[in-house]
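ok so for the tutorial part 2 we go from a plain amino acid sequence to predicted structure tokens. step 1 is just haveing the sequence, like this:
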Amino acid sequence: QVQLVESGGGLVQAGDSLRLSCAASGRTFNGYAMGWFRQAPGKEREFVAAIGWSGGSTSYADSVKGRFTISRDNAKNTVFLQMNSLKPEDTAVYYCAVARTSVVATISSAFRSWGQGTQVTVSS
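step 2 — the prediction. this is what the tokens look like for a chain of 124 residues:
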């Protein structure tokens, strides 16, 4: 069983950048795809980005394409989300999760071992 801890969230202004980190403890997540999701108050959790186990395959939500970049460092059991040109619409709690397989997925049911989340607030 793997435990995930997100960090790097905070309060920023529109146009700023932020990098989120997701560190794993317990069992490694090597061999599995990873993903980032977010949830704003009163809304359902939505897909943001995902990356395959080798890092060679990625997927992004249309709303973040060109602005966000997902990456991973398997040797350090860490996944990252670089967020540039942040918008107020990006305000949410961001969660990382381990996929059930090594293949990139974009739906919540394809992931397991969710982290506690980190708050990102973007002011205008």
